[in-house]
Design goal:
This protein is α/β, with parallel strands linked by helices and 195 residues long. Helix content is 27%, strand content 26%. It has one domain: 3-Layer(aba) Sandwich (Rossmann fold). The protein has helices at residues 26-38, 59-66, 79-91, 129-138, 186-193; strands at residues 49-53, 71-76, 98-102, 115-120, 142-153, 164-172, 175-182.
Length: 195
């Protein structure tokens, strides 16, 4: 596993053995960042604050930093994954631009700062995507009109929670990727909170 593009292009990332984490494939990450960087959805990565929920190795957040994001917050709860995540942040020399938060992405603490872009890559078939989106919204992690990406297994069902609009959907092998936009309005925030 490696960084695909930007200032850390080609840098290899450490990953725990076995099935502790399931990092997004290089091919999928490349396709996702192509959509974000060159698509029709007006997503500006340069200088952005991003959150990498279910961070695992941190590949998505580190890819974003490599491509010009200004700051990345990594959310991870697994102790083994956290060790490799810290190692990868150090390998890339991104300690000043990265914050690692040990937390359950589906039950987050209040955010210190809202983000422009959120990456969610929960374990396949865990049904954790929707609770994590709701938690991000309710705890102030998302700016109005921010973008979230969600990777799930191809066969998994997904219905976006209130306030999230699917603006793109792609299938890559056994994975499906949704790109969503969060619309923070009083009615939307209330409906998400009461869901």
């Amino acid at each position: 596993m490696r960084i695909i593009a930007g200032k850390h292009r080609g840098r290899r990332l450490a990953a725990p053995p076995g099935r502790t984490v399931r990092p997004s494939s290089d091919r999928l990450r490349q396709a996702l960042f192509n959509i974000l960087g060159h698509g029709k959805h007006d997503i500006e990565l340069e200088g952005a604050t991003v959150v990498d929920a279910f961070a695992g190795t941190g590949a998505l957040g580190l890819e974003a930093l490599s491509r010009g994001a200004g700051h990345a917050i990594f959310i991870e709860n697994n102790p083994t994954a956290l060790e490799h995540l810290r190692e990868n942040v150090a390998i890339c020399g991104e300690g000043e631009q990265a914050n690692i938060t040990r937390a359950n992405a589906s039950s987050l603490p209040p955010a210190r700062a809202a983000c422009d872009l959120a990456f969610l890559d929960p374990p396949y078939r865990s049904d954790l995507g929707v609770p994590a989106l709701i938690s991000l919204a309710n705890q102030g992690w998302l700016k109005p009109r921010s973008v979230c990406t969600l990777e799930i297994a191809k066969a998994e069902q997904f219905l976006p929670p209130s306030g999230f609009e699917v603006i793109d959907e792609r299938t890559y092998g056994g994975a499906r990727v949704f790109i969503l936009r969060w619309s923070d309005t009083p009615a939307t925030a209330s409906s998400v909170a009461n869901r």
